[in-house]
Specification:
Number of helices: 15
Shape: elongated
Order of helices and strands: HHEHEEHEEHEEHEHEHEHHHHHHH
Mean pLDDT: 81
Largest sheet: 6 strands, mixed, barrel
Helix content: 40-55%
Radius of gyration: 32 Å
Strand content: 15-25%
Distance between the termini: 32 Å
Structural class: alpha+beta
Number of domains: 2
Strand order of the largest sheet: 2-3-8-5-7-6
């Protein structure tokens, strides 16, 4: 038994069927708009989360969770083997591998392209395992010290017309003891081709044995750095900050969120703009809710007058319509969240069904590397969407409910 009069009357108004078509129609439209707006927000943000995860996975495929390095211009006098052992012993560290990365020019007549030459140690399984996942031709086993062999990105191989076994000349800009430019030339043989599905890697990166790259430098350890992998990629900023306090003076650490900040900043901006645009659907539903409650207030003038005559205070009359609007808002938001979570969870299967039904491809396999629709539901996002939608709709119910509380009983009964 409901002891609260506003709650009882408000719920009765929600259940009751109005004789006026306009009130019922606007009620259903506001419910539908709320459901569609919340559902669209949940689905779109879950898909964008999935695409962000795909991008993160591909960025880390040929990189690492963090890199330890000495800034340019600082003498590299550190014992990198001892430093790697100290970092490997730190908690939350899954692996450490040395590497060198230098800028160079890849020359193959008539083309000359700027590239990055990365030297890795094939003895480190973690480093080798990541690169092996991207190789589409050749084998990483051919990268033995002293072999002068490289693995190139697919886009770079296409631009230079390279195939396995072809030579490619690298021009490395260096200086002599007096600081005068003294470029070095070295001819490498293509041992394989990788495809990371990222233009930054595929069009500019070459991978060679660490010792071969060190031999190109006047000071072999001048460009030495360490790749560090943690147990969790998303915890890299926190782990890197802890690890930074244990590093010797002059050595810095930079996690992947800093190194690839531009990518994820762009994604955050896109997600924010999409959320704002889709939230306009909820705002439209709020306007419909205002119109519906305003019509209900006009339709229930006699009921309001009777309640006021029986001693109901204006505040309790206002509460009746606040409860009615809140229940409708909750129904719309809850149904939107349920449908959004369901579609977001099965986004890949839903996309595949629509592709079969309408005979089209969302991601053309000839154009895009990602051919499926990824999705990732996040509880905090769903709670934020539901909370903001509820706040908007509750604010929309205040004005009609306030108008209902200000209706004079005598005027309402006089014209009935």
């Amino acid at each position: 038994m409901l002891n609260s009069l506003p709650l009882f009357v408000g719920l009765r108004y929600v259940r009751a069927r109005s004789h006026k078509f306009g009130v019922s129609f606007i009620t259903w439209v506001s419910l539908l708009c709320l459901c569609l707006g919340v559902m669209a927000l949940v689905v779109v943000l879950s898909v964008m989360n999935g695409l962000e995860g795909e991008l993160r996975e591909r960025l880390l495929l040929l990189s690492s969770h963090a890199r330890v390095f000495v800034p340019a211009g600082t003498p590299a006098t550190h014992d990198w083997s001892a430093l790697a052992g100290r970092i490997r012993a730190a908690p939350d560290v899954a692996g450490v591998a040395p590497f060198i990365e230098i800028e160079a020019l890849a020359v193959r007549k008539p083309e000359m392209l700027p590239v990055r030459l990365r030297g890795i140690d094939p003895a480190h399984e973690g480093e080798v395992e990541r690169i092996t996942k991207t190789i589409v031709e050749g084998s990483l086993a051919d990268l033995t010290p002293g072999s002068d062999r490289v693995i190139v990105g697919r886009a770079l191989a296409q631009m230079l017309g390279l195939r396995i076994g072809d030579p490619v000349t690298l021009l490395i800009p260096t200086t002599d003891e007096n600081g005068a430019p003294q470029p070095r030339l070295r001819e490498f043989t293509v041992a394989g081709v990788f495809n990371a599905a990222l233009q930054d890697y595929d069009a500019s990166l070459l991978v060679a044995p660490l010792e071969d790259v060190r031999g190109l430098l006047a000071e072999p350890d001048a460009r030495m750095a360490l790749h560090v992998n943690f147990k969790e990629a998303l915890g890299a900023p926190r782990y890197a900050a802890t690890l930074a306090r244990q590093l010797p003076a002059g050595v810095q650490i930079e996690d992947w969120t800093v190194e690839h900040a531009s990518y994820f900043r762009a994604i955050r901006i896109e997600k924010t703009m999409v959320a704002i645009i889709l939230m306009l659907i909820v705002a439209v539903a709020a306007f419909y809710l205002v119109a519906m409650l305003a019509m209900v207030v006009t339709d229930k003038r006699t009921d309001i007058a009777i309640l006021r005559t029986l001693g109901t205070s204006p505040r309790r009359v206002m509460a009746v319509f606040l409860i009615q609007g809140s229940v409708i808002a909750w129904l719309g938001v809850a149904s939107g969240v349920l449908f959004g979570v369901w579609i977001g969870y099965y986004a890949g299967a839903v996309a595949a069904f629509l592709e079969r039904l309408f005979r089209f491809e969302i991601f053309d396999s000839e154009v895009y590397v990602i051919t499926r629709l990824p999705s990732e539901l996040r509880l905090e996002q769903i709670l934020w969407i539901a909370g903001i939608a509820m706040v908007i709709t509750l604010l929309a119910t205040i004005y009609p409910a306030y108008r209902a509380s200000r209706i004079p009983p005598a005027d309402a009964l006089r014209y009935e």
